[in-house]
Amino acid sequence: MSSLNDREITALKDAIDLYDTVGDGKVDSLALADILRGIGENPTESDVQKFLKQVDPVGNKRISLDDLIPIALSCKQKSRDVQPQEFVDCLRVFDKDCSGNISSAELRQVLTTLGDKLSTDDVDMLTSGLEHKGQVNYEEFVRSVMSG
């Protein structure tokens, strides 16, 4: 994975065309996260901030294709396929009685306070229909989230 393929370069060019509001073949640096997600990457907010500091330390630069290619490549190299079982194993830590369920309040706390924090509305959406008597079956939760 040392370079981007033609399809990925084309996707970046299309993203620039979409976000270029001036017509100079560049995009505002604030569109970086949307562009990366638009080409299928899923950078964390921390990753996006790191990339922005590299390419636009002052916060007012327009980014060209030449700026975007190394960022997209870095994202591509960092990403990997995560298997559902990895998430299940992480959530199993909260299953105190080995029942296959965790407290919905505890799940909500984890999702809204750790890592890339979700909003309460996002958590409500993700757990909708999965809560039963204050508990969530975490394997069912992971399947639901990963299936979109």
From TrEMBL:
Keywords: Calcium, Repeat. Pfam families: EF-hand_7 (PF13499). The keyword ATP-binding does not apply. GO terms for molecular function: calcium ion binding. SUPFAM superfamilies: EF-hand. This is Myosin-2 essential light chain-like. Coiled coil: none annotated.
